[in-house]
Request: fold
Amino acid sequence: MHIKDHPVLGKQLQEPVTIYFKDQPYQAYQQQTVAAALIANDIKKFGVSRKNIQDRGLFCSRGRCCSCYMTVNGEDHVRTCMTRVEEGMEIYPNLEDPEVRRDGNGD
Amino acid sequence: MNRLDKSTIICRCEEISYEEIEEVIGNGARTFDDIKRLTRCGMGPCQAKICTSLVAKVIHEETGKPLHEIPLPRMRMPLSPIKLETLATDSTSFSTVKSVLDEVELEDGKVR
Amino acid sequence: METDVLIIGAGPAGLAAALETASRGLAVILIDESSSLGGQLPQQTQLIRPLPSEYGPLRGFELAEKLINQLEDYPINYLLQHRVVGLYADGSVGVTDEENVFPVKAKKMIMATGAAERAVAFPKWTMPGIMTIGAAQTLINRDFVLPGNEAVIIGSSDFAMDVALQLMAVGVNVKGIVEEQPEVQASDNVKIEQVQQSGVPIYLNASIIEARGNGEVAEIDIEHTGTVLTEKVDLVCVDGGRSPILDLFYQLGCSFGYQEKLGGWIPQYNSNFQTDREDAFLAGNAAGITSQGAILLTGMVAGISVCEKLQAISHDEAQQIRGSLFKELEILEDKDIWESRIHHIERYANPKLKDQFIS
Reply:
């Protein structure tokens, strides 16, 4: 849930932004991180671990743990806690090692 | 003391359990780097940022070594994950590889 | 890119150091990974005291605003959303803006890279919904997002108490605080009482047996006085304490000392807040975990020391200012922390851990 009226900091969410997670639209606000925006929409599972296929989500929110890795606008392994939302952003969960040989990664 | 057993993950990135670390300590591992080389603990994307303190605690618990005698892990560049494309830099500026290997004169971030 | 002073980290220490150096005419580059200045300070909604004499008690975000506004008149080069990724052989700092990596050559560096939170491990702590206490605070006070509805907090530091109150203020039901030690770790009794009066039980000598959930955390088992307490939660905040971020110091070849009260391993430095690398100074939580007021003072000391080395002020003036800053630091800082800091500084000639870096 978005905190529209914060008890100390007031009404800070001003400009709405639409982001897409697994092709579905969700409401976010300018200045929020991708990770935060997804959590606001009750999406807490951002991906799975490589070996034991265990669910992963936000942990440190400081860009250190890399647990929040997701694919954002075609780029894999994006630290979503360090990335601000943009209108029309396309986000997919980090479910497996990316295909290294593909057009988006050059030849 | 929170429960530490074979289901407790110590290294999130490489999914190394408490049990695996306990085992290699039993086989003589004493520093973070020892444990890293034997289990892959600390070799994932976060490069031991999260597990260093957890591993130090386990070494302390298992061997009795005081924390001030457990050295830091080897830390390498880059300090956080970076794309190869970024590291290679724009070819109209200069190459990070080139400036590390050669003597390069730089002016405003561009090769002279 | 060249400059007189490169300040790495635009949190309170970096901002304080920037004021001391820029106001005395030095060319300053201030670099931070984030897209805004202030570090962790802007998300602190609690009242912060004690602060150095020139600041009254302020809320974190108010203090951050003040520190940022103080720099208005100076031509500081702000590099936001820039990261330090390494060092070149010639001593230049490798900086990236996510497009390229370029070297920044500075006569002196002040590293105010701050602290990192320590993890707390228990079965299934890696599940979504289980995050650090700092992460929970970031979500509510910076991103304006509710991290969950029913929470358990593991750890009872002053910071945990602050965040517990902040979570409750936005409607999160904090069902309990789990502390493994026999006593509450926080020292602010007013805050502890506030938390308790809000109906939050604090379990001492307690530990976590396991967390459970499918896709995200749903339950957590707490062991307390021989019984098992199961709480239904969708948020678990772990507080393992904080310790200085050391990666950059390590790359520089700095030595380290160990001080438990300061957060464990910290870069070795002297009373000028200079590391054992000639051109590298440090400030803030990177120099040992301490309170906000003390963080500001360390930033000022580092700034003054750099001004002295670059001859922006005389040695005598620097000594005089540093003397009064240290006097204030002793008053402001927790007694245990101050004493650890002095012991640490005393070890400058013979640090505990050296020659760590091998390229």
Observations:
- The radius of gyration of chain B is 19 Å.
- Residues 22 and 62 of chain B are 7 Å apart (CA to CA).
